Amino acid sequence: MVPDTVNTEILARIDAWWRAANYLSIGQIYLLDNPLLREPLTKEHIKPRLLGHWGTTPGLNFVYAHLNRVITERSQSTLYIAGPGHGGPGMVANAWLDGTYSEIYSPITRDEKGMKRLFRQFSFPGGIPSHVAPETPGSIHEGGELGYALSHAYGAAFDNPDLLVAAVVGDGEAETGPLATSWHSNKFLDPLQDGVVLPILHLNGYKIANPTVLARIPEEELLDLMRGYGHHPYLVSGGFDGEDPLLVHERMASTLDTVLDEIADIRRTAEAQRDAGEDVTRPRWPMIILRTPKGWTCPAEIDGLPVENTWRAHQVPLANARDTEEHTRILEDWLQSYRPDELFDGDGRLLDDIASLAPSSELRMSATPHANGGVLRRDLELPNFRDYAVDVPSPGATTAEATTVLGIWLADVIRDNPDNFRIFGPDETASNRLAPSVYEHTGKQWSAEILPIDQNLVRAGRVMEVLSEHQCQGWLEGYLLTGRHGLFNCYEAFIHIVDSMVNQHAKWLKTAGDIPWRRSIPSLNYLLSSHVWRQDHNGFSHQDPGFIDHVVNKKADVVRVYLPPDANTLLSTYDHVLRSVDYVNVVVAGKQPQANWLSMDEAIAHCSRGLGIWDWAGTEKPGTEPDVVLACAGDVPTLETLAAASVLRKNLPDLKVRVINVVDLMRLQAESEHPHGLSDREFDALFTVDKPVVFAYHGYPWLIHRLSYKRNGHENIHVRGYKEEGTTTTPFDMVMLNDLDRYRLVIDVIDRVPGLGTRAAGLRQRMQDARIVARQYTRDHGEDIPEVATWQWSAEGSAGVSQEDAQERVEETGS
Amino acid sequence: MVPDTVNTEILARIDAWWRAANYLSIGQIYLLDNPLLREPLTKEHIKPRLLGHWGTTPGLNFVYAHLNRVITERSQSTLYIAGPGHGGPGMVANAWLDGTYSEIYSPITRDEKGMKRLFRQFSFPGGIPSHVAPETPGSIHEGGELGYALSHAYGAAFDNPDLLVAAVVGDGEAETGPLATSWHSNKFLDPLQDGVVLPILHLNGYKIANPTVLARIPEEELLDLMRGYGHHPYLVSGGFDGEDPLLVHERMASTLDTVLDEIADIRRTAEAQRDAGEDVTRPRWPMIILRTPKGWTCPAEIDGLPVENTWRAHQVPLANARDTEEHTRILEDWLQSYRPDELFDGDGRLLDDIASLAPSSELRMSATPHANGGVLRRDLELPNFRDYAVDVPSPGATTAEATTVLGIWLADVIRDNPDNFRIFGPDETASNRLAPSVYEHTGKQWSAEILPIDQNLVRAGRVMEVLSEHQCQGWLEGYLLTGRHGLFNCYEAFIHIVDSMVNQHAKWLKTAGDIPWRRSIPSLNYLLSSHVWRQDHNGFSHQDPGFIDHVVNKKADVVRVYLPPDANTLLSTYDHVLRSVDYVNVVVAGKQPQANWLSMDEAIAHCSRGLGIWDWAGTEKPGTEPDVVLACAGDVPTLETLAAASVLRKNLPDLKVRVINVVDLMRLQAESEHPHGLSDREFDALFTVDKPVVFAYHGYPWLIHRLSYKRNGHENIHVRGYKEEGTTTTPFDMVMLNDLDRYRLVIDVIDRVPGLGTRAAGLRQRMQDARIVARQYTRDHGEDIPEVATWQWSAEGSAGVSQEDAQERVEETGS
């Protein structure tokens, strides 16, 4: 089926396609009009602002043209990842050549008129962006922020056994950290269950203003590096010093055949191993190093300076094409060098012979449904989370590790969705206590060596663990963008490592939401555990709740933040987020044993509202307004708030306290700012317009102010949260360090409710004493004072420290 | 000088040191009392909460012991970087053994009493954190967030030609992106100007709950990888299956000698090349792969499960040491296995013979001044920035590219500080327009191949460019922490890539500030350009001003944010930040040609105040309050605000407009929140307590609310800023997309100032029309409407669009 050698006729066709794509790319960057050079080029035909990137484009087009051939010959479903995504005009050009562009964007017809529109819209106000973007057919990868081409490629390949992902990696991008480690993704790919990633390292030698590192090390060193990454490298080099491109086409075509044959062999070997009941050992997947000149085929020199094969070809090589007649001529000659008359007919249509290089229908890389993952999305089969509820006969009566409980449900999510759901984590799935449960029906996918001592490592599994948050995020993004589901569990502090990646994904979601042909994809779901308040082992470096702040800067249409206070609310929340599409859902939940507050029915009702009054915790009288509102969001703040409410209940029984718990943080925002925002009327009814609100919040306090600053009563909201004080210490010492502890909350109430009298003054003093005592006890004993460590909610109220104890201890410590 | 073979006596001494360090490490993790096991161990001697990490510690101690020998023998100044910094007890143990710890912390004496305190304080409330941290002598590297060991090491080595940096890289850490690319740092090190980095890849095989990738690939593949990274790898493996550690000591000692000899050879070769006037070619630096069991020397099994050489040894292998008699015995036996009686004398002092392994004085790795960089810090010689001022005869009369102007000054900063100042950037120094000026007296340091076509590449230079923000940040941190100065210039959007790193550095600065023996180090300075408003080439992926929001979450003592509106204010700001210590300074400035507003004298006064009224721009009458305040921060918002002020001046001449520009964002915060915060009295005098304030801000608008929410008049502050709308478009279209444009600001004023009458209503309509016209013009022509593109400040005021034009054009477009 596959020809031994690629014949001259086919090579000529590949070359013609390549020239056409290059021509169209340059046209997009430069031309407003006269797209086929029917008349001499004048400055009126040239765009006033020349924006875009030429340098990487001929390489992207070269690979695209060659892939077209092998896709057709082998009927190989293929997804193209353009790592150097700033080569946007190239991907658009190819999509226009193979017809997809006109199918999707009907005004951009496959003729001269459409070509003119194609050119004009590029990087033009109201048109399309300069990079590969959601607007680009066939793309799941914006190449603006570099580094994620391979992780996206592997994410797309997981559970798509018939898919080939051709991932072009720029040699600039290759210098980034995320890309450098993502080569190791090949230790996490199963040749039977998953598709294949073919990395093509595009060594064109230059970045914006510098050579690239990998282009300036000896070839043998580069080959060692690729071998060290576990690949079998093939080198295709050419196009330098005016070498005839046909010779390079021949080498590329032949290499591509060899490589695809080798991939086929690898898969056959794996099948044979499986059939023989043997271990499917890690293959040495091939990869290609493609060394061609930067800006290949552009003018060798402009104004006496070398351009082709230098950094000067990176963006717009002829930045002043409009300014002098000489430059306009250079541009015209450059465009003519592709011989457009031999490529397009009188109407501006691509000649049939050239067009025949394109695969048909969905085999066209620009039309693959994998690049519009929503088309392939199947909703998850979710086991009824109510069946996994912990028993909560009354608030605080039982305890659970919330993430452990979630893990039991997730195990069954995995069982029921064996091919389109994965859990990603940076070696923290066990630490976050989703494991061991989640391994009940699966294991951690691992293609490297497995020893007898290992646990839960399997060749094909649903849990992906590698100590790289970038890899976890990139893989998951690739998986979601191709229509599958997943979650990323991570220590809360270190999710900041992917701040910039989630930025870019949120931007993708925002833009994709406005593109009619893009279908909804599963949400990007985070489970942040081992959070700021419980980093007993690790201390300050592991204490940072700021990811929430980062995420809420993104468009309100896209972001959701949940802080379930216990196990049942976490179950309900996660069922919700796994059903959702097109969001970034941030869920923060603890892994330590903690009191359960709500039964499952209560949890569902509470999560549906997103926030609500916990009547049982407060001391309101029906029909009257409370004197003070204690609000809380997050599991530890909820515990401290309830303890404070308990102290108030016992010691100031006449004080009318309302307790509000917030699960869905976005409920605090104004309706006008966020789709989840409460109406002002609802907000006022809950928080009052004039009573003091003491708000205990999981993260940096100002976020609550930011979310609520448009509310009527917001001047009265006093927020306690993390104020960047931390170290290796006990849980209660941590909340005291940050003034989020129960005693401090009671003091806050006393300081804010007027007219409480001497009894309150005495309580205030006792609370201050209790803080001193608790701190001293911790310093002396290395653990939390028993009154706090063993404190339990009681409907009668309790102080967590008795008056007598406190006084005695204060005297003892002499503080 | 260097012995051919290391004799048995020395090996025994190394082993004894290692045993002592291991003993002390375990003591820190487990013991409250009975530090020398003078009596049988009981549960009362054991800490109630066992926190810390054992797994990596014996490896760290092993390397430390061996380095001690070669440092002494070669008088080699050495800095130790513990990549697996969670092995904190190891580094503390070694510092105690060599005496530094007791010199710095006098209560922790070098005897039994001190040992008991040493043990107790570790991971204990009020004590020291569990990781290598600022509290740890000899450290510049917190190992909590993994991935930066090598970049810190190289940063420390730059411009320290006599320094050896021994960088232990954990095999878990090696999976992170930043670490994976940081191996390539060896293409940026000059063997003459810089010190040497000796990477020691510590392959102990396991992470928290998984094997490591690099431990599970064939040895030849790993060696290929290291060769591909440009290293000459040496493998030292041992300690498995109960192998006598002395055999491993012998191999390590011998390898270390070989490696250090090879390094000496490399440097001699480089000197010879230099002396012969030849190019100093890139050497193939040696590195060591140290393969030893995780948790080496801990119990092989506990409760029937393998522990040594498994992931179970990662944290506290015997987590229940206190709970059963059997476990207590296991702990005692484990401790006794190091034969403490042969290590410490009756008073608990390390025996002299063993102690003699330590180098003397500052050669001790725990005492090296390089790890307390403030000791070595020399203030920069800063050329008088006033001499670099651009001429500003009147506001807006001249234009400049602010960063270009800064670059001219920085060139001379480089000239005058040839060995302690560097500029770092991810291939953006030219794009950000600091270049070409900054290359006047230097070049970009580059040890890989240099071709004749290259520009400004040199073997030893002051500018470091690699396409990895992680590398830039890590190198700079290492450079600063060892007492030198620098700045990081970056596209604004992509500085988010290092969010998490700046978190950690800010935490380091906060903690170090409270440690008496730590001296102040130069500030971490950012120059963020190619900012959100001017990403004409790249579009949405490159548009994100959120780094400021991220940074202001850190401690107010540490962070500073500056938004100089023009060239002279940027010069003044940068002179200030380069003189500062212990801060994270974020400076955002444009690179495009833009009007200059202030002469240098005015700029200095304005920057000193941090914000102020621009009288010349407003229409206040002396002695009366304004009707409205137009505030602005950032270069583009300043331009739009001045244009709006100009429109108002011309069209509503009776309206009293005050214009305030803010350079130092932290001035907006309350005095109680930030040291730069204005007093309420000052704030009220500037912003009024009851007049509308229309605030045009560079970034996400809510930050202004967050900073000012405690202010009296804050209810009246209306903020315009970036609301996450972007694409590849013109500069003015970008501000219109985000409602930050001059016309919108005028409308905002009209909507907020009561009683302006019909003339204002007419103006409002014209402004709305002007927006429609401007947008349509841009869609039609691909560039900004000339009225805006060529607009200049005039004291008489101008609309930027005439009434007639607008009406005509609206009619034309039919909008």
Task: Describe the protein in words.
The structure is a homodimer of 815-residue chains. Chain A has 815 residues and is of the alpha/beta class. Chain A has three domains: 14-371, Thiamin diphosphate (ThDP)-binding fold, Pyr/PP domains (Rossmann fold, 3-Layer(aba) Sandwich); 385-595, Rossmann fold (3-Layer(aba) Sandwich), CATH 3.40.50.970; 613-790, 3-Layer(aba) Sandwich (Rossmann fold), CATH 3.40.50.920. Chain A is built from 25 helices and 22 strands. Chain A has a six-stranded parallel beta sheet with strand order 12-9-13-14-16-15, with helices on both faces. Chain A has a five-stranded parallel beta sheet with strand order 1-2-3-5-4, with helices on both faces. In chain A, helix 2 (57-74) crosses helix 9 (245-275) and helix 23 crosses helix 25 (803-813). The first copy, chain A, is elongated, with a radius of gyration of 31 Å. The termini of chain A are far apart. At the A-B interface, helix 7, helix 8, helix 13, helix 14 and helix 20 of A face helix 7, helix 8, helix 13, helix 14 and helix 20 of B.
